[in-house]
Amino acid sequence: MRWDNISSPSEFILLGLSSRPEDQKPLFVLFVTIYLVTLMGNLIIILAIYSDIHLQTPMYFFLKSLSFVDICYTTVIIPKMLINFLSEAKTILYSECMTQTYFCLSFGNVDSYVLGAMAIDRYVAICKPFHYITIMSYKCCVLLLIISLTIPFLHSLLHVHLLNQLTFCASNIIHHFFCELKAMLKLSCSSTYVNEIVIKTEGLSVVMAPFMCIIISYLRILTTVLKIPSTAGKYKAFSTCGSHLTVVSLFYGSISYVYLQPLNSYTVKDRIATVIYTMLTSMLNPFIYSLRNKDLKQGLGKLIGRIKSQ
Fold first, then answer.
1. Residues forming beta bridges with residue 11, ordered by sequence position
2. CA 19 to CA 148: how far, in whole Å?
3. Looking at the chain, which terminus has fewer C-beta neighbours within 10 angstroms, N or C?
4. For 13, phi and psi rounded to 5 degrees?
5. Spatial separation of the C-alpha atoms in residues 272 and 269, rounded to whole Å
6. What residue stretches are annotated with the G-protein coupled receptors family 1 profile domain (predicted)?
7. Among 116, 36, 63, 35, which Cα is nearest to 299's?
């Protein structure tokens, strides 16, 4: 669909992962499965941490927060995808599109900031173990969580405001499965120079802040661990970081692939990479943490035991 001289279209068309009719039902089954597994996995993690007094520590406070954010993140994207898989129109209202862009940016960045807070927690636990309880107090954890929410939501507000100032008069077909910022910018027939500059300056600084926090924390952790004389001691110290490093690698690897490319080179491969950091990471987080964490396994066992006894 094309039109002229319309600055604010009433709706957009989400092209999705595939436009072939025969792909729609298999994709629906795949993503409804991903969504249900994500919801169940993260809800179980939250309930296990909430119900076990031994898991009321800073590390699990942030893990619980990460699980909640992952539920919100996927809920902003997948339900609309599922509707479009079964619909011929595949439309989304302009206002809904802008709202989806805002919350996708917000929750995606909250994810990265919570991962940054978890890196700080691991740094203090390994490098300053005798001061851990004092430094990582409940007040400090809540403050880190507030920062992790405030900065991303203000950051997203700026980008959506700039996006809303653009003129969309070339096409209303979004070559993506949700109203992703870069895909939206490609539709504008007005200059996106300011938007791209803000993405490369403010956007990059906001995204890189937690990433640099993670890098610095793990460099300090590595320095401390290498000073431990025994191999068993080194393994024990690093074992508490394995799950976190796996999640960070998945999340930042895929998001870097998408956003560190020029706007005009955006292709279907980027859509697939987007699935990883918006959905697969959220789905895999509970498994990554529960399979590699003895305390969380015990907490899950207690929760399952309580459910069976009722």
1. 93
2. 37
3. C
4. -110, 125
5. 5
6. 41-289
7. 63
Distance, CA of 32 to CA of 309 (rounded, Å): 30
Distance CA 124, CA 129 (A): 6
What pLDDT, on a 0 to 100 scale, did the predictor assign at position 291?
67
Q: In the chain, pLDDT over 90 holds for what percent of residues?
A: 48
Q: Do residues 63 and 49 lie in contact, with contact meaning Cβ atoms separated by under 8 Å?
A: yes
Closest to 118 in 3D by CA, of 71, 72, 68, 63: 63
Distance CA 151, CA 116 (A): 13
The three-class DSSP label of residue 20 is coil
Q: In what order do the strands lie in the sheet with 173-174?
A: 91-93, 11-14, 173-174
What are the φ/ψ torsions at residue 170 (nearest 5 degrees)? -95, -45
Strand, helix or coil for residue 205: helix
Catalogue all structural domains in the chain, each as residue range(s) with its CATH number: 11-309 (1.20.1070.10)
Residue type, 182: K
Give first-to-last CA distance, the chain, whole Å: 56
| DSSP structural state of residue 19 | -
In order, the DSSP letters of 114-145 are HHHHHHHHHHHHHHSGGGHHHHT-HHHHHHHH
Question: What SS3 state is found at 92?
Answer: strand
Q: List the beta bridge partners of residue 174.
A: 14
One-letter amino acid of 143: L
Q: What is the pLDDT of residue 157?
A: 96
Residue 228 pLDDT more than 50?
Answer: yes
> Tokens 């005009």 sit at which residue?
264
**More confident: 190 or 254:** 190
Q: How far apart are CA 23 and CA 223, in angstroms?
A: 50
Average pLDDT, stretch 65-74? Answer: 95
- pTM of the predicted structure, to 2 decimals: 0.89
pLDDT at res. 263: 54
The CA-based angle 89-92-93, given to 5 degrees, is: 125
Rounded CA separation 60/66 (Å) = 9
